[in-house]
Amino acid sequence: MKVFIEPIGKLINQFTKLPGVGSKTAQRFAYEVMNMTQAEVEEFADALVRVKKDVHYCAVCGNFTDGDVCEVCKTRDKSIICVVKEPKDVIAFEKLHEYRGVYHVLHGTISPMDNVGPNDIRVKELLARIKEGGVEEVIMATNPDVEGEATAMYIASLLKTLGVKVTRLAHGIPVGTDIEYADEMTLSRALADRKPL
């Protein structure tokens, strides 16, 4: 005897395709869908279809938008560009409500082990934006891992020939962390990036 009838089994299988969703969570999601009204299920399904149909990459920065150009690119200070790996990184900065510049989403980082080179991410598009003029600073906000550091260094070397100020996010020990638990790379960066009091 099957554990789940076919429609519920298919729904559970679809939920398990989402990152971080295991079989138990997928089962809870499936049963929650079963408890929804028909109207709620149709609204949920419509949201899935619409996001896939209507959302695409901004023609300028590469972030998600439902227009040709996103609102950030239309309305913000274009003299500062924050370079990030993927669209979810933009959300992290936007939650701060402090950054007033624009973004450039690379959609990846340089990773020779994964056969990802500079031509596989949006480096040419960044260079084209800078060559249009008006950009004073580029903030490299890629992750502080090997791939993120390699990507930041590569892009910085290209941008320095264009006379643009290139900065990197500071690295250090997170607030609330005991020094004894910090890894060597983090502690080394914190020491190198120390600031006067």
Question: What's the layout of helices and strands?
Answer:
Blueprint: H1 6-16, H2 23-35, H3 38-54, E1 56-57, E2 64-65, H4 71-75, E3 77-84, H5 87-94, E4 101-105, H6 123-131, E5 137-140, H7 146-160, E6 165-168, H8 184-192
Parallel strand pairs: 3-4, 3-5, 5-6
Antiparallel strand pairs: 1-2
State the distance separating the first and last CA atoms.
69 Å
Please state the CA-atom Rg, rounded to the nearest Å.
22 Å
Mean pLDDT equals 91
Q: Could you give the order of the helices and strands? A: HHHEEHEHEHEHEH
* CATH architecture descriptor text of the largest domain: 3-Layer(aba) Sandwich
Structural class by sheet pairing and helices: alpha/beta
CATH topology of the largest domain: Dna Topoisomerase Vi A Subunit, Chain: A, domain 2
Number of strands: 6
Strand content: 5-15%
* The CATH class of the largest domain: Alpha Beta
Strand order across the largest sheet: 4-3-5-6
Low-confidence stretches: none
Shape: globular
Largest sheet at a glance? Answer: 4 strands, parallel
Share of helical residues: 40-55%
Number of helices: 8
Number of domains: 2
